[in-house]
Amino acid sequence: MNAVNASGWRPSMGETGEAGEKFVTSSGDYGLMLEEALSFELGSSEKCGVDLDTPARPAAAGLSKFLRKAAPALPGLTEPETVRHYTRLSRQNYAIDLGPFPLGSCTMKHNPRLNEKMARLPGFADVHPLQPQKSVEGALEVIEQLADWLITLTGMASVAMSPKAGAHGELCGLLCIRAALDARGEKRDVVLVPESAHGTNPATAAFAGFKVQSIPATPEGRVDLDALKAKLGPNVAGVMITNPNTCGLFEPEMKAIGDAVHAAGGYVYCDGANFNAIVGKVRPGDLGVDAMHINLHKTFSTPHGGGGPGAGPVVLSEALAPFAPLPFVTRSADGTVHLVEEENAGEGHAQAFGRMVAFHGQMGMFTRALTYILSHGADGLRQVAEDAVLNANYVLRSCEDLLPAPFAKSGPCMHEALFSDAGLAEGFSTLDIAKGLIDEGFHPMTVYFPLVVKGAMLVEPTETESKAGLDRFIGSLRSLAQRAKDGDQSLHSAPHFAPRRRLDETLAARKPVLVWQGHLGEPGTPSLSEFGGS
Ligand SMILES: *Cc1c(COP(=O)(O)O)cnc(C)c1O
After folding, report:
1. What is the edge-to-edge ordering of all strands in the sheet holding 457-459?
2. What is the pLDDT of residues 59-90, one digit of tens each?
3. Domain segments of the chain: what residues?
4. CA distances from 19 to 23, 25, 26, 28 (A)
5. Higher pLDDT, 258 or 14
6. What residue ranges line ligand 1, CB within 6 angstroms?
7. What's the gap in Å between 449 CA and the centre of ligand 1?
8. String of b and e for 163-196 (b: at least 16 CB within 10 Å)?
């Protein structure tokens, strides 16, 4: 990173042409590729975006000690400067509204605008969780109808709606398991987790106070049933299985896994993040699952990423349903809906383990998810799964001659195509392909996950990509794989056409600088060049 020059603009990044010549622009911008300084660097304390009158009255007696002695060190920008600043920054973002977002395990599908319209209806958007129940019956009805759909689609007995994300749902499920064990008077402290699991699974089990033991995968990328059986015993509280798993494969022995775990006195937690591949096709309740979170933001389409928003309702079997957390939305015999809280927990929820959150969950996401479900209907949801699986297999079969697909011999994949970087030229890896995709105008796929595959690339196209869109993506992926096989050195410095080149990701993770601490270049201020920024 170069220092900011007098006019507030950073000098040009200086692209280098094929013949080695430097292309330089005086603004630092390259056409529509905009270079943007921090608001602190652009603004000044003399400027203000609004006209504020000097307050006529002195500070109220007793409050004067809170008066500022000096103006806050905030950047002053005019309204047009502010609007342009954020608009320019937003143009450096990649988004699902801009192109495919093939991040495996994340189900980044198109979010229908109808969902947004419904979520913005004032009766949903403006509700407050402390409003009298009588005034929010419509909102409670949405929660109950969505709950009913989730129970129907999963074939389970009950659903806890309040968890705020997948990982939060995992915690809710494990706390239900613990409450059920407590009720049986048993102290079991081991949770079995396959090697291929998402990092949240072992993290949740450890956070909930369990010891984590890992189960190996078979060479076909599935849970090793014999290895799992060998670990079962009186200490095992349960297993956490992802199905379809993170290798993009269905676990065909799920029922046998469930039977073995139940026979040994444990419970089956299923990570339902990949429900998109089986919605309308398979009911986890038929496979012996006791608890499973559903990432509403993934399968049932809410814009997500960057940490939110999310919603992770947990469907529960008969065995775990009594322990679901409060509050709980319930339909009475007369057809009306109402809330079960601590004071009326006797209505079937006396054994609730407590609460996950203060209120009922994410109203905006419930509204979006129910809108999505109602606008698709049961047939439409089944087609979602079928098209998602079809698209992933199209990517898999279109690229497997260039990029090894470790489990492709075992048959079709589910909604994700998994490749490895074995077979690229010496020194080339998954990272080069991922960075190259940025130059091709795509968001990279999930990289180096699952851990059981060397240099894993997990591509989840989702059902909302057209064949033409998939062909463009496949063309780019094939071209990058070929360049990496041919040893094209220029790939090592990709991305060339992004605002920044390769950052030092290790340093950025180990020494994150999250707060602006003064003008760049001043003594004691971290310089972005430390992070490899140009
Ligand atoms: C996304 C995901 C999670 C975690 O869900 P969040 O909503 O991000 O907390 C867990 N497991 C798998 C397999 C996932 O893809």
Report:
1. 417-419, 457-459, 446-447
2. 777 888 888 888 777 788 999 999 999 999 99
3. 116-124+131-372, 503-534
4. 11, 18, 21, 21
5. 258
6. 105, 165-167, 198, 200, 242, 246, 271, 273, 295, 310, 312
7. 13
8. bbbbbbbbbbbbbbbbbbbeeeeeebebbbbbeb
- In one-letter notation, the amino acid at residue 389 is V
Closest CA to 119 of 137, 96, 142: 142
User: What is the three-class DSSP state of 15?
Assistant: strand
Distance from C-alpha of 430 to C-alpha of 403, rounded to nearest angstrom: 10
In the reported structure, the alpha carbon of residue 109 is separated from the centroid of ligand 1 by a whole-number distance in angstroms of: 15
Q: What does the DSSP 8-state code read for residue 416?
A: -
Asked whether the bond before 244 is cis by omega within 30 degrees of 0, the reply is yes
Quote the CA–CA distance of 169 and 313 in Å, as a whole number.
6
Whose tokens are 């940025």? That residue is 438
CATH topology of domain 116-124+131-372: Aspartate Aminotransferase; domain 2 (3.40.640)
CA 299 to centroid of ligand 1, rounded, Å: 11
Atom of ligand 1 nearest to the CA of 107: 15
Residue 200 Cα: closest atom of ligand 1: 10
Q: What single-letter DSSP state applies at residue 512?
A: -
At 500, give phi and psi (nearest 5°).
-130, 155
pLDDT attached to residue 510: 94
The runs of H, that is alpha helices, within 328-362 are none
CB 369 within 8 A of CB 109: no
State in Å: Cα 107 to ligand 1 middle.
Answer: 10
